[in-house]
Design brief:
globular, single chain, 2 domains, 15 strands, alpha+beta, D-amino Acid Aminotransferase, Chain A, domain 1, 261 residues
Protein backbone atom coordinates (compact mmCIF):
# COMPACT_ATOMS: atom_id res chain seq x y z
CA UNK A 1 0.00 0.00 0.00
CA UNK A 2 0.95 3.67 -0.34
CA UNK A 3 0.91 6.16 2.51
CA UNK A 4 0.67 9.91 2.02
CA UNK A 5 2.84 11.36 4.81
CA UNK A 6 3.79 15.01 5.22
CA UNK A 7 3.30 15.75 1.54
CA UNK A 8 5.04 12.67 0.13
CA UNK A 9 3.83 9.27 -1.06
CA UNK A 10 5.81 6.44 0.55
CA UNK A 11 5.71 2.69 1.14
CA UNK A 12 5.23 2.35 4.90
CA UNK A 13 6.49 -0.41 7.18
CA UNK A 14 4.30 -2.16 9.72
CA UNK A 15 5.70 -0.13 12.63
CA UNK A 16 4.80 3.16 10.96
CA UNK A 17 1.29 1.92 10.23
CA UNK A 18 0.91 0.83 13.86
CA UNK A 19 2.10 4.25 15.03
CA UNK A 20 -0.55 5.87 12.84
CA UNK A 21 -3.38 3.74 14.25
CA UNK A 22 -5.62 5.92 16.48
CA UNK A 23 -5.12 4.92 20.12
CA UNK A 24 -1.67 3.42 19.56
CA UNK A 25 0.10 6.64 20.52
CA UNK A 26 -1.19 9.63 22.44
CA UNK A 27 -1.16 12.40 19.85
CA UNK A 28 -2.56 15.92 19.85
CA UNK A 29 -4.65 16.05 16.74
CA UNK A 30 -7.64 14.64 14.89
CA UNK A 31 -8.47 11.86 12.47
CA UNK A 32 -11.26 10.83 10.14
CA UNK A 33 -12.20 7.32 9.04
CA UNK A 34 -14.22 7.09 5.83
CA UNK A 35 -15.67 4.31 3.72
CA UNK A 36 -15.02 4.10 -0.01
CA UNK A 37 -17.00 1.98 -2.44
CA UNK A 38 -15.66 1.38 -5.93
CA UNK A 39 -13.10 4.14 -5.41
CA UNK A 40 -15.57 6.79 -4.21
CA UNK A 41 -15.66 8.04 -0.63
CA UNK A 42 -19.06 8.10 1.05
CA UNK A 43 -19.90 11.46 2.73
CA UNK A 44 -16.48 12.86 1.81
CA UNK A 45 -17.43 16.53 2.22
CA UNK A 46 -18.98 15.90 5.64
CA UNK A 47 -15.82 14.13 6.85
CA UNK A 48 -13.53 16.87 5.56
CA UNK A 49 -15.70 19.53 7.19
CA UNK A 50 -15.52 17.74 10.55
CA UNK A 51 -11.76 17.39 10.13
CA UNK A 52 -11.51 21.15 9.61
CA UNK A 53 -13.82 21.90 12.56
CA UNK A 54 -11.87 19.59 14.87
CA UNK A 55 -8.54 21.17 13.94
CA UNK A 56 -9.94 24.63 14.53
CA UNK A 57 -11.23 23.53 17.93
CA UNK A 58 -7.73 22.30 18.88
CA UNK A 59 -6.06 25.42 17.53
CA UNK A 60 -4.34 23.59 14.66
CA UNK A 61 -4.18 24.55 11.02
CA UNK A 62 -5.53 22.36 8.25
CA UNK A 63 -2.40 21.54 6.21
CA UNK A 64 -4.32 21.05 2.96
CA UNK A 65 -7.31 22.60 1.28
CA UNK A 66 -10.42 20.46 0.78
CA UNK A 67 -9.63 20.26 -2.93
CA UNK A 68 -6.08 19.06 -2.22
CA UNK A 69 -7.29 16.44 0.28
CA UNK A 70 -9.68 15.08 -2.34
CA UNK A 71 -6.86 14.87 -4.90
CA UNK A 72 -4.70 12.93 -2.44
CA UNK A 73 -7.52 10.54 -1.56
CA UNK A 74 -8.37 9.88 -5.20
CA UNK A 75 -4.75 8.98 -5.93
CA UNK A 76 -4.58 6.61 -2.95
CA UNK A 77 -7.81 4.89 -3.96
CA UNK A 78 -6.71 4.47 -7.58
CA UNK A 79 -3.59 2.66 -6.44
CA UNK A 80 -5.52 0.28 -4.21
CA UNK A 81 -8.23 -0.78 -6.69
CA UNK A 82 -10.35 -2.26 -3.88
CA UNK A 83 -14.12 -2.77 -3.95
CA UNK A 84 -14.35 -1.61 -0.32
CA UNK A 85 -11.77 0.58 1.39
CA UNK A 86 -11.31 2.15 4.81
CA UNK A 87 -9.78 5.58 4.25
CA UNK A 88 -8.08 7.42 7.10
CA UNK A 89 -6.77 10.97 7.45
CA UNK A 90 -4.70 12.09 10.44
CA UNK A 91 -3.41 15.56 11.35
CA UNK A 92 -1.41 16.10 14.52
CA UNK A 93 1.18 18.26 16.20
CA UNK A 94 4.52 16.70 17.00
CA UNK A 95 6.77 19.09 18.86
CA UNK A 96 6.59 22.31 16.86
CA UNK A 97 5.74 20.51 13.62
CA UNK A 98 2.31 19.96 12.12
CA UNK A 99 2.22 16.48 10.60
CA UNK A 100 -0.39 14.81 8.45
CA UNK A 101 -1.08 11.48 6.78
CA UNK A 102 -3.65 9.66 4.66
CA UNK A 103 -4.07 6.03 3.69
CA UNK A 104 -6.54 3.65 2.05
CA UNK A 105 -6.80 0.23 3.70
CA UNK A 106 -8.65 -2.91 2.70
CA UNK A 107 -12.06 -3.16 4.35
CA UNK A 108 -14.39 -6.13 4.72
CA UNK A 109 -17.90 -4.85 5.53
CA UNK A 110 -20.18 -6.90 7.80
CA UNK A 111 -22.15 -9.61 6.02
CA UNK A 112 -25.91 -9.45 5.60
CA UNK A 113 -26.24 -12.28 8.11
CA UNK A 114 -24.36 -10.13 10.64
CA UNK A 115 -26.82 -7.27 10.14
CA UNK A 116 -29.72 -9.69 10.59
CA UNK A 117 -28.12 -11.21 13.69
CA UNK A 118 -26.94 -7.97 15.28
CA UNK A 119 -23.98 -7.59 17.63
CA UNK A 120 -23.36 -8.32 21.30
CA UNK A 121 -22.06 -5.42 23.40
CA UNK A 122 -20.69 -5.07 26.93
CA UNK A 123 -20.83 -1.87 28.99
CA UNK A 124 -17.69 -0.08 30.13
CA UNK A 125 -17.45 2.80 32.64
CA UNK A 126 -14.98 5.44 31.46
CA UNK A 127 -15.21 8.44 33.79
CA UNK A 128 -15.42 10.67 30.70
CA UNK A 129 -16.80 14.10 31.50
CA UNK A 130 -19.55 15.54 29.32
CA UNK A 131 -18.58 18.37 26.99
CA UNK A 132 -19.98 19.93 23.81
CA UNK A 133 -16.37 20.46 22.67
CA UNK A 134 -15.83 16.69 22.45
CA UNK A 135 -18.63 16.40 19.91
CA UNK A 136 -16.62 18.47 17.42
CA UNK A 137 -13.29 16.67 17.80
CA UNK A 138 -12.56 13.14 16.56
CA UNK A 139 -9.43 13.13 18.67
CA UNK A 140 -6.22 11.15 18.20
CA UNK A 141 -6.11 10.93 21.99
CA UNK A 142 -8.10 7.77 21.38
CA UNK A 143 -6.75 5.31 23.95
CA UNK A 144 -9.95 5.31 26.03
CA UNK A 145 -11.94 4.04 23.05
CA UNK A 146 -9.31 1.64 21.73
CA UNK A 147 -8.80 0.08 25.17
CA UNK A 148 -12.54 -0.35 25.71
CA UNK A 149 -12.86 -2.10 22.36
CA UNK A 150 -9.89 -4.41 23.07
CA UNK A 151 -11.32 -5.37 26.46
CA UNK A 152 -14.72 -6.08 24.92
CA UNK A 153 -13.17 -8.24 22.20
CA UNK A 154 -11.08 -10.14 24.78
CA UNK A 155 -14.32 -10.99 26.61
CA UNK A 156 -15.88 -12.29 23.39
CA UNK A 157 -18.10 -9.28 22.66
CA UNK A 158 -18.37 -7.35 19.40
CA UNK A 159 -18.39 -3.85 20.88
CA UNK A 160 -18.20 -1.80 24.08
CA UNK A 161 -20.98 0.55 25.17
CA UNK A 162 -19.37 3.46 27.02
CA UNK A 163 -20.64 5.23 30.14
CA UNK A 164 -19.58 8.77 31.05
CA UNK A 165 -18.79 10.09 34.54
CA UNK A 166 -22.51 10.45 35.29
CA UNK A 167 -23.24 6.86 34.30
CA UNK A 168 -25.00 7.78 31.08
CA UNK A 169 -24.40 5.86 27.85
CA UNK A 170 -22.73 8.30 25.46
CA UNK A 171 -21.60 6.09 22.56
CA UNK A 172 -19.97 2.81 21.62
CA UNK A 173 -16.19 2.59 21.29
CA UNK A 174 -16.42 3.17 17.52
CA UNK A 175 -20.01 4.29 16.91
CA UNK A 176 -22.98 6.37 18.05
CA UNK A 177 -25.91 4.71 19.79
CA UNK A 178 -29.68 4.89 19.21
CA UNK A 179 -32.61 3.23 20.95
CA UNK A 180 -36.29 2.99 20.02
CA UNK A 181 -39.02 3.55 22.62
CA UNK A 182 -42.72 3.65 21.75
CA UNK A 183 -41.92 4.64 18.19
CA UNK A 184 -39.55 7.47 19.21
CA UNK A 185 -35.88 7.35 18.21
CA UNK A 186 -33.67 8.20 21.21
CA UNK A 187 -30.00 9.14 21.11
CA UNK A 188 -27.61 10.78 23.60
CA UNK A 189 -27.21 14.56 23.19
CA UNK A 190 -23.92 15.97 21.91
CA UNK A 191 -23.26 17.52 25.32
CA UNK A 192 -22.97 14.10 27.02
CA UNK A 193 -19.54 13.40 25.53
CA UNK A 194 -20.43 11.71 22.25
CA UNK A 195 -19.04 12.52 18.83
CA UNK A 196 -21.18 14.35 16.30
CA UNK A 197 -21.07 11.32 14.00
CA UNK A 198 -21.59 11.61 10.26
CA UNK A 199 -24.04 8.69 10.27
CA UNK A 200 -25.65 9.94 13.49
CA UNK A 201 -26.60 13.18 11.76
CA UNK A 202 -27.81 11.33 8.68
CA UNK A 203 -29.97 8.92 10.69
CA UNK A 204 -31.61 11.83 12.52
CA UNK A 205 -32.32 13.63 9.25
CA UNK A 206 -33.70 10.49 7.60
CA UNK A 207 -35.85 9.63 10.62
CA UNK A 208 -37.43 13.09 10.64
CA UNK A 209 -37.92 12.90 6.89
CA UNK A 210 -39.90 9.68 7.35
CA UNK A 211 -41.97 11.16 10.21
CA UNK A 212 -40.16 9.17 12.91
CA UNK A 213 -39.92 11.33 16.08
CA UNK A 214 -36.38 11.88 17.44
CA UNK A 215 -35.42 12.84 20.99
CA UNK A 216 -31.86 13.65 22.12
CA UNK A 217 -31.70 12.75 25.82
CA UNK A 218 -29.46 11.08 28.36
CA UNK A 219 -29.73 7.29 28.29
CA UNK A 220 -28.90 4.72 30.95
CA UNK A 221 -28.03 1.08 30.36
CA UNK A 222 -31.54 0.20 31.59
CA UNK A 223 -33.01 2.51 28.97
CA UNK A 224 -31.17 0.51 26.30
CA UNK A 225 -32.04 -2.91 27.74
CA UNK A 226 -35.73 -2.08 28.19
CA UNK A 227 -36.09 -0.32 24.86
CA UNK A 228 -37.93 -1.62 21.83
CA UNK A 229 -34.56 -2.20 20.21
CA UNK A 230 -31.26 -0.38 19.73
CA UNK A 231 -28.58 0.05 17.11
CA UNK A 232 -25.22 1.70 16.57
CA UNK A 233 -24.10 3.78 13.61
CA UNK A 234 -20.89 4.88 11.98
CA UNK A 235 -19.69 5.71 8.49
CA UNK A 236 -18.23 2.23 7.92
CA UNK A 237 -21.02 -0.08 9.07
CA UNK A 238 -24.02 2.19 8.55
CA UNK A 239 -26.77 0.95 10.91
CA UNK A 240 -26.08 -2.18 13.00
CA UNK A 241 -28.70 -3.57 15.44
CA UNK A 242 -27.74 -4.66 18.97
CA UNK A 243 -28.55 -8.26 19.81
CA UNK A 244 -27.69 -8.00 23.51
CA UNK A 245 -26.20 -5.75 26.20
CA UNK A 246 -24.16 -7.39 28.99
CA UNK A 247 -25.65 -10.73 27.99
CA UNK A 248 -29.27 -9.55 28.12
CA UNK A 249 -31.08 -10.02 24.82
CA UNK A 250 -32.66 -7.01 23.16
CA UNK A 251 -35.68 -6.79 20.92
CA UNK A 252 -34.87 -6.25 17.28
CA UNK A 253 -35.81 -2.60 16.66
CA UNK A 254 -39.23 -2.38 15.04
CA UNK A 255 -38.23 0.49 12.78
CA UNK A 256 -37.44 0.69 9.07
CA UNK A 257 -33.68 0.60 9.47
CA UNK A 258 -33.11 0.51 5.71
CA UNK A 259 -34.66 3.98 5.49
CA UNK A 260 -32.05 5.34 7.87
CA UNK A 261 -28.99 4.25 5.90
Amino acid sequence: MTLFLDGKYIRPGDKLLDDLTPGHRRLYGVFETMRARQGRIVFCDEHLQRLSDGLKCLGLENPLSRRRWKTVLRRLLKQGILTHSRVRILVWREGRCLRYAAMALKYEPPSMSQYRRGIRVVTAATGRRASFRQARVKSLDHALFADAYRRAAALGFDEALLLNAKGHVFEASRANIFAVHNGVLLTPPLGCGCLDGIMRARVIRQALRHKIPVSERNLTVKDIIHSDGAFITNALIGVMPLASVDGQALKFPDIRLALLQ
